Amino acid sequence: MRPLISIGRFSELTGLSIRALRLYEEHGLLAPAIVDARTGYRFYRWHQRAVAERIHRLRELDMPLELIARCLHGELGVGAALEQHGAALQAELQQRAQTLQRVREAQTSRALPDFEVRIRRQRAWPLLSLRYQTSLSRCEADRHEGYRSLRQRAARLGTRAAGPPHAHHPPQGGFDPDDYAVVLSLPVRLAVPGSEPGVGGLIAFTRLSGDLTTLLHAYQALGDWLARSAYRRGGPSAERYLCLLRPGTSPHTEVWAPVHPVKEGL
């Protein structure tokens, strides 16, 4: 029997970074064959390289980890997973095309604001999240109500907010201003039942003040900056509501996305 392979050597053999291997372990995609109880060192078997290669190929297609897990666990065939992933990409492409059209229309009426994009390092606080459907006419009230609900849940669970709430909008086959999805998340100081890992590491962000009429321009500015920078996107963009922690103040919103230096890609 061939000897076990250390995680460092396995990383070299598969072309996957150690960080990627740990991420795949966390999501149940590729667990080490043995974890030394005393040192925490991880070891793999030779036959696991085939699984690692399959994960790597699917990740090159930007397939979500949850979908890859269903393939590896036999819940979904690779062909069906590719079809499902392709449909999601097509829906996202359609939504982005519609957003781009609105941005172009806005450009004809007035000049785009000058958004400065900066980089910071963010701590990955645990998140309590809430998903709901809203519309442009209800979004402000729903956001405040969602934030109130998340704060109450955090208090019941014995923790408190670690920073401003943020939200992202899952793709759903195009943007409907009268009915679209929002996932509102609140970073909290303690991991509690129902919480999930937060987004940490390097963050690219830009800010806008006042109402959200220039929000699409902020997203566009961030996307343009990423396209020409030395960073690649590490996850979806989100909105961070800096004003909700201080009721009565003028709105300040941050549009951000996790990023990685290009040469550190998974």
Automatic annotation (TrEMBL):
SUPFAM superfamilies tied to this protein: Probable bacterial effector-binding domain (SSF55136), Putative DNA-binding domain (SSF46955)
Key words of the record: DNA-binding
Record flagged with keyword DNA-binding: yes
Protein name listed in UniProt: HTH merR-type domain-containing protein
InterPro entries cross-referenced by the UniProt entry: DNA-bd_dom_put_sf, MerR-type_HTH_dom, MerR_fam, Reg_factor_effector_dom_sf
GO MF entry, a single one: DNA-binding transcription factor activity
HTH merR-type domain residues: 4-74
